[in-house]
């Protein structure tokens, strides 16, 4: 059995996908009536999914707990519920793709600090909740430095949800977080009318930034070139289903954006500034995204500056 903490689109989608071969308990502070949710139109949760607003009920007897919470909400949730989540031999699997804005810590670091007895993993990679919920083929990275990862890989895989395991937890998390920043930049380029060629250039240079910072922070280059890095970057920077891309496009076009929609890349861009400065790494794309998200920069001038940086060897 698996418990999923967080009944947003991604948590609900995972519940639907995993329930084809095991009972799943889905927890949320509030749950929609019936077995449908407006977050995933047309998706009906199977009877194998138990819905509950009681966290103790959701966690009872569970050895696999998936934390499907936004990156900027995770720290506060752990401060309140960390003791309940903790347990020797229990897997806590993070799905958040971000960096905590207050502490600069990764999700797994926050979980480890709050739940020292648990086993920690991250599930990340190129995916949209709607595809997972509908059983469309999806490949993700399951990363952990703890023993027992192959068993967890098999427990959370389904015929349509294929998980590739990695022991580079740091790299998998950084890839998932940083790609959101670059996806915003890609959206800005399209929204401002700079075109697909400019978007491709920003994706390419953004990936170089992702790789420089991640390897400086201890990640492996091959992890960034895999599903959790390049794969997720390509999907998030090119699809209208990507919230980060849509947010960037709205910025580029000078349009408003629904404040209730979680855009992980906006906060991550701000957090990245401190990490990059500490390592002495130049990240002009990430810095531009942070400035635009904070309203400190003009879109046209920012993009022109990025596209006219000094000529040098690639």
UniProtKB/TrEMBL annotation:
Binding residue positions for sn-glycerol 3-phosphate: 97, 125, 127, 179, 232, 242-244
Active-site residues (renumbered): 179
Chain positions recorded as NAD(+) binding sites: 6-11, 129, 243
Pathway in which this enzyme or protein is active: Membrane lipid metabolism; glycerophospholipid metabolism
Ranges for domain Glycerol-3-phosphate dehydrogenase NAD-dependent N-terminal: 3-146
Leading EC class: oxidoreductase
Reaction(s) the record says it catalyses: sn-glycerol 3-phosphate + NAD(+) = dihydroxyacetone phosphate + NADH + H(+); sn-glycerol 3-phosphate + NADP(+) = dihydroxyacetone phosphate + NADPH + H(+)
Residues where NADPH binds: 10, 29, 97, 129, 243, 264
GO MF entry, a single one: glycerol-3-phosphate dehydrogenase (NAD+) activity
Any one of the GO CC terms: cytosol
A single GO BP: glycerol-3-phosphate biosynthetic process
Subcellular localization: Cytoplasm
Amino acids binding substrate: 97, 243-244
EC number: 1.1.1.94
Top-level taxon in the UniProt lineage: Bacteria
Keywords noted in UniProt: Cytoplasm, Lipid biosynthesis, Lipid metabolism, NAD, NADP, Nucleotide-binding, Oxidoreductase, Phospholipid biosynthesis, Phospholipid metabolism
Domain named Glycerol-3-phosphate dehydrogenase NAD-dependent C-terminal: residues: 168-303
Record-linked HAMAP family: NAD_Glyc3P_dehydrog
Family: Belongs to the NAD-dependent glycerol-3-phosphate dehydrogenase family.
Role summary: Catalyzes the reduction of the glycolytic intermediate dihydroxyacetone phosphate (DHAP) to sn-glycerol 3-phosphate (G3P), the key precursor for phospholipid synthesis.
Protein name listed in UniProt: Glycerol-3-phosphate dehydrogenase [NAD(P)+]
Species in which this protein is naturally found: Paracoccus aurantiacus
């Amino acid at each position: 059995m698996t418990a999923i903490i967080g009944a947003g689109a991604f948590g609900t989608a995972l519940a639907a996908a995993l329930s084809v071969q095991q009972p799943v308990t889905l927890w949320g502070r509030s749950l929609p009536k019936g077995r449908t949710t407006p977050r995933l139109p047309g998706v009906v949760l199977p009877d194998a999914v138990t819905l509950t607003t009681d966290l103790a009920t959701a966690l009872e007897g569970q050895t696999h707990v998936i934390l499907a919470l936004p990156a900027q909400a995770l720290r506060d949730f752990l401060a309140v519920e960390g003791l309940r989540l903790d347990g020797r031999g229990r897997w806590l699997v993070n799905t958040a793709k971000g960096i905590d804005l207050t502490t600069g810590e990764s999700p797994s670091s926050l979980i480890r600090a709050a739940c020292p007895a648990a086993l920690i993993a991250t599930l990340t990679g190129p995916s949209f909740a709607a595809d997972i919920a509908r059983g469309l083929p999806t490949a993700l990275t399951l990363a952990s430095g703890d023993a027992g990862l192959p068993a967890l890989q098999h427990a959370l895989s389904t015929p349509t949800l294929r998980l590739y395991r990695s022991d580079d937890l740091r790299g998998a998390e950084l890839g998932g977080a940083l790609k959101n920043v670059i996806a915003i930049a890609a959206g800005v380029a399209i929204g401002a009318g700079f075109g697909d060629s400019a978007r491709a250039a920003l994706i390419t240079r953004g990936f170089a930034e992702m790789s420089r910072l991640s390897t400086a922070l201890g990640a492996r280059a091959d992890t960034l070139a895999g599903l959790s890095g390049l794969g997720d970057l390509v999907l998030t920077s090119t699809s209208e289903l990507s919230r980060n891309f849509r947010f960037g496009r709205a910025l580029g076009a000078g349009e408003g954006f629904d404040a209730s929609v979680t855009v992980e890349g906006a906060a991550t861009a701000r957090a990245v500034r401190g990490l990059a400065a500490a390592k002495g790494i130049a990240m002009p794309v990430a810095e531009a995204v942070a400035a635009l998200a904070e309203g400190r920069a003009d879109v046209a001038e920012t993009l022109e500056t990025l596209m006219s940086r000094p000529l040098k060897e690639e």
